[in-house]
Structure formats: C-alpha cells, structure tokens
Design brief:
disordered C terminus; mainly alpha; globular; about 0% strand; about 75% helix
C-alpha cells in the first residue's frame, strides 16, 4: 500500500474516533434543529474560507445538480440523525443509521461500476453483525428497539436512507470538480435548507461556543475534507467499513459520559466492527476505485 493510502487510512481512523463525540454534543440541552443548523453553517463557513484562500469560490457548472441534490440529502440525514439521538439511545440510533453506508457499499458495484473484492463483502458482513450485537443485550432480554421510541428508530431509518443515497448520488463529482469544492457546495445547500433555524443556531452558538464550534468547524468542516480526500484514495466499500469505527467510539464515550455501559455481547460486537475495518484496510487498493468518491 502506498504512503498516501496509508496516510488516508490513518486519518480516516482518527476522524472516525473523533466523530464518536458528536452524540455527546447532541445530548446537550440544545434543540436538535438548532444543533444541525449550527453544524452545517459553521462547517460551510469553514470550507468557504479555505476555498477563498485557494481562490476557488465559484461552483463549476459540471455536476452542479448532483451536488445540490446531495446537499438536500445531507440536510435530511443530519436532521433525522440528531432527532433520533434525542429520542433513543446512542447505540440504537447509530446501529440503524449505519445501515446506510453498508447499503451504499453493496449497491456501489451495481450502480457505479465500482469493482469490490469478494473479501470486502465479508468485511461488510462482519461489521454489520457487530453493529447488531452492540444493541442486543446479553441473554436476549432486550431487542433493537429497547430503551427507544418508535419515532427514534424511524428517524434513524430515514437518516440511513438519506446517507446511502447521498454516497451514491455525489460519487461522480469529486474527480472532476475536487473534494473541497464538492463538500462546500453540499454544506452550503444543506445550510440553505436548514436556514429557518439559523437565528436559534446563532443564539445557541453564542451561549455554548465550545461544543458548537467544535461540532461545526472541527467535526464538520475539516472532517468532510478528510473524508473526501481519504475516499479519493480508497473505495466506497472500504471507507464505509472504516467509518464503522465511529459508532464504536460513540458507544465507548457514552459508556464514560452517559453511563451507558456495554455488556459482554456488546463488547463482542465492538470487536467484530474493528475486525471488519481491518479486513477493509487490507483490501483498500487503488484498483477498487473506478469512480470518484462519495461522502459521509
């Protein structure tokens, strides 16, 4: 594996671990609508600043429709995800939402012409089983919907469908337009969609600057750039599995800060997700990429 791919994998792993802190921020006493609006606006401003420095503020006509559609899907994905986190447990919300990247990885060969090695499907399967185990209590006393509301599960399902569509719709734009421009266009579109909650988002950012600035600038603006750059070196399937580290990080952080302690069966699930990521990393080669990147 080349040094660029190695760096891409390392950056992706570190990012996935950091993204696990997002549910902790969402659990703050801040309305989910204003949280997601603050996230996209701060993230968009961060990337617009980078584009201004590089003198690339103009959005090219090529793939403009795909970028706008992806931005709308992004707004839906994050809004429903944050809502789900307000309605249900961290583990349940993430397990349901992360069905989306799995679906995108499975559909990518059929819809995008991307070649995926057979072992990648094993990685996806192992990671998926691990995610299911994360939310099933030892002894079968609780199920996927335990500790949650039907509304939370449904919101997470909508978020999963939106992220799967987003990854597939936006994939072809990056090679031609560039990851920074595509990501910024998506965030700006999402910001416009969520603009009705901007006044409240501004008030909450002034009142709670540290968590919201971290969420918007670090865990959105810069994280998107890292994801786009990493996935340009890897395949959709590889990145989909590697990003399964995020819910594991979130479960561990929830254990420490929210007193949601995994039982032995859940720890087994965590191990399976990590194993799936290692299998994906082994198969992450340039030959797997026949089209441009997607995003989270």
């Amino acid at each position: 594996m080349s040094s660029r791919r190695t760096l891409a994998l390392i950056a992706l792993v570190l990012l996935a671990v950091s993204l696990g802190a997002i549910p902790l921020i969402v659990r703050e006493d801040i309305p989910w609508q204003e949280l997601v609006s603050a996230r996209v606006w701060l993230g968009a401003i961060t990337l617009l600043t980078l584009l201004a420095i590089r003198k690339q503020l103009r959005l090219p006509a090529s793939h403009r429709i795909e970028i706008v559609v992806a931005g709308v899907l992004l707004a839906i994905h994050w809004a429903m995800f944050f809502w789900a986190l307000k309605l249900t447990t961290v583990a349940v919300a993430l397990a349901v939402v992360y069905l989306g990247p799995v679906a995108a990885a499975v559909l990518a060969p059929r819809l995008l012409g991307e070649r995926v090695p057979g072992r990648m499907y094993w990685a996806l399967g192992v990671a998926f089983i691990g995610l299911i185990l994360v939310v099933i209590r030892e002894g079968g006393d609780t199920t996927l919907t335990s500790g949650s509301t039907l509304g939370g599960v449904m919101a997470a399902l909508v978020s999963a469908v939106a992220i799967a569509a987003l990854m597939l719709v936006s994939k072809a734009a990056v090679d031609e337009v560039g990851p920074l421009v595509v990501t910024t266009g998506e965030l700006m579109t999402a910001a416009v969609v969520l603009s009705p909650w901007l006044p409240g988002a501004i008030r909450e950012t002034v009142a709670n600057p540290l968590p919201l600035l971290t969420l918007g600038i670090v865990l959105t603006g810069f994280s998107f750039l890292i994801i786009w750059t990493a996935i340009s070196e890897l395949s959709v399937a590889a990145v989909s599995v590697m990003l399964h580290i995020e819910p594991i990080s979130a479960v561990l952080l929830a254990m420490v800060f929210l007193d949601e302690v995994p039982d032995p069966l859940q720890w087994l699930g965590i191990g399976l997700v990590i194993a799936g990521g290692l299998i994906a990393a082994r198969d992450a080669t340039r030959e797997d990429v026949l089209a441009a990147p997607a995003n989270l």
